[in-house]
Amino acid sequence: MNFWEYLGTRHEQLLTNAYQHASAVFQCMVVATVIGVLIGVLTYRSEWAGNVATTVTSTILTVPSLAMIGLLIPVVGLGVAPTVVALTLYGLLPIVRNAIVGLRGVDPSLVDAAKGIGMSRAARLFRVELPIAWPPILTGIRVSTQMLMGIAAIAAYASGPGLGNEIFRGIGSLGSKNALNQVLAGTLGIIVLALLFDAAYVLIGRLTIPRGIRV
Prior knowledge:
By secondary structure, the protein is mainly alpha-helical. It has helices at 3-43, 47-62, 65-76, 80-90, 92-104, 108-116, 121-151, 164-172, 179-208, 211-214. It starts with a helix and ends with a helix.
């Protein structure tokens, strides 16, 4: 059968895989964003601490995804757990780096002015520094999401959810009549999800970043 016939006969399973893929990436990005921004907040004031945070998260990203998941299987088992841990770790670097850069880029005079009117340290952070640093942080989140969309496909190696199962089935049955259709369906599905997520981030940016900061 051709590719379009394959999609017609497998659309329900493909939609299920696509939902699982998107859900895994979204949930891991939420966790990675919280952890990454927290690391940025804790380290941006110190050059040494910021360099350590960036170096550690950079080192994590150099570990091949297949090796990372393979190393996690004996620790957390098969299925969703190694997928969540691996994706969260891989998503940290762009967020941590951009959070540090964004927070360090806040004009000190604005922070001093906020301090002068009696704002507490927490109030200055949440009402002045983080809002101004939000554009680069959002950029880091977008970059992480695009990376994780592709990396999440490897989760099928550990019986994880997502469109990677379609790709692995196709690769495992090379030579069969639907092998190419399976690989193509999984790959195109990931590309479509990545584009949809990126469009959502563009909309979030327009809604949350004041025009003056965007300019």
